[in-house]
Batch of 2 targets.
Target 1
Amino acid sequence: MMKTSKALWLIVPAAGRGTRMAAQRPKQYLPLAGRTVLSCTLARLHEVFPEARLCVCLDDTDTWFDPAAVPFTDWRRITGGPERVDSVMLALDAIADEAEDDDLVVVHDAARPCVRSDDLQRLKAVLATEPVGAVLAAPVADTMKRADANERIRHTESRDHLWHALTPQGFRYRLLHDALTYALRSGVPVTDDASAIEAMGHSPQLVSGGRDNLKITHPDDLMLAELVLAAQAESYRK
Ligand code: C5P
C-alpha cells in the first residue's frame, strides 16, 4: 500500500541517572509544576507533535516511569544505553523495520521541560522542507573565555556566529542513523545529534529559540524551571 505522508518520529532520551543533581531520584522524575520533569516535557512536545510516534529511552532499572504520564497514542519504551548517544542509537535501531529513510526524527532531551510551543512550531515548519536537518539554538550573549588547565583565562573567544545548541534537533532517519553509526565506530565525540551530522560533512540549520529552554542539570535549575514555566503560563494567558 502507498504511504500518503511520512511518519514523524520523536525520540526522548530519558535514560540518564542525573548524578550531577545528587537527588534521590533521576532528574527526569523530580517534581516540577505539580508533575514530573518528564511529564512536563512530554506534554509540551504533544502540543505541537501530537501525531508523532514516540520512543522514550529509559534505563532498564527505572522503576519511576509512569505510563500514565505519556499523552501520545503511539509510543514505546526503549531500553537506553550507557551514554545519551547510545540511547538515541538504540531507539533508531528499534524502529529500523518501520521507519522510512526520509522520515523525520526529532530528538528532544527529557531534561528540557521548558521548550516553548512557538519554538517547536517554527522548528517543525523548517524541518518540513529542510533536507539536512535543523536544531533549536540560542545565540551566545555572554563574553566567552577560553581557560587553561588552572582556570586562568587564556583568551577571549569571539562571540560572532557562536550559538548554544539546544534540543529538539531533527533529521531524516537514514542520515541520522548513518551519522550516529559512523560517530560511534570512529570515536567522534557526540554531545548532541547535530555533531554526528557535522562529522559527516553536513551543516544543519540553526533555528533561533528561547534562552529559557534550559536543561535541568544542577539542583538550582529546577527552581529556575519552575519560574520559567510559571512565567510562560502567565504570558500565554495574556
Ligand atoms: O546528562 P545529560 O543532561 O546530558 O542528558 C541529556 C538527556 O539524555 C537526558 O534527558 C538524559 O536522561 C538522557 N540520557 C539518556 N541516556 C544516557 C544518558 C542520558 O537517555 N545514558
Target 2
Amino acid sequence: MVVCLDKMSKRFLIAPSILSADFTRLGEQIAEVEAAGGEWIHIDVMDGHFVPNLTMGPFIVEACRRATKLPLNVHLMIEHPENLFEAFAKAGADHLIVHVETCPDVVSTLKMIKSLGCKAGVTLNPATPASRLEAALPLADIVLVLTVHPGYSGQDFIPEEVSKIAEIRRRLDEIGSPAWLEVDGGISIQTISQVREAGAEAFVAAKAVFGYPEGIAAGIQALKNKITD
Ligand code: ZN
C-alpha cells in the first residue's frame, strides 16, 4: 500500500481498554497507563442483550474517574443507551459512544449526549454498512469503527473492516468534520499500521496493552513506535 504521508492526519492517540485489565488492581493499572502516555481510558460496557457478554456499568466508570484525570471513552454496547446517559455522565464519563444499531434516531441521541456535557460518539458493528452513519457524521465528535464482532476481548482483527475505515475517513474529510476516527478490536503491533494508513487516529487496545509481556508501558510504547515508524 502506498501511503501519502502529507494527507495522513498527524494526530494520534492510544486508548487502552480496561476490558483486559487486572480488576484486582484497576486503579494501579490505570495509573500505569497514564504515566506511560496513554491518552484515553476506553471502557467497554456490555449488557448481555445487544452483545452476549455482560461487563461494567456506571459504578466502574465512577471508580475509573477517581483513578485518573484522563478522558473516559465509554463505548456503550447496550440496548436503549439513552436510559443510562445521565448515570454515565454523573459517574464521570467524558465521551459516550452509541451503536447506530441501537438508535432509531441517532441525531437526537447524539444531541442528548451533548446536552449532558459529554462528547458524542457513534459506532457500528462490522456487519453494518458505513452509509448508516451518514446522518450522524456532522454531529459526531468521535466515530468508532469496530474491527471485531463486539462482545469479548482478544478476538481476531477483521481485515475487511480496513476499507470501511478508509470510506469513513473520506466522508469525514469531505464534510470537514473534526471528529476523531477511532478503531476498536484486535489492535496490536501487527494490525495498527494498516488501520493508521486507512485514516484511523485513535486506537483502542486491550490485550496489546494490559496483556503485553513486558508490561503496560512497553505495550503502549510499542504501539506508538509502530505509528511513528
Ligand atoms: Zn470498545
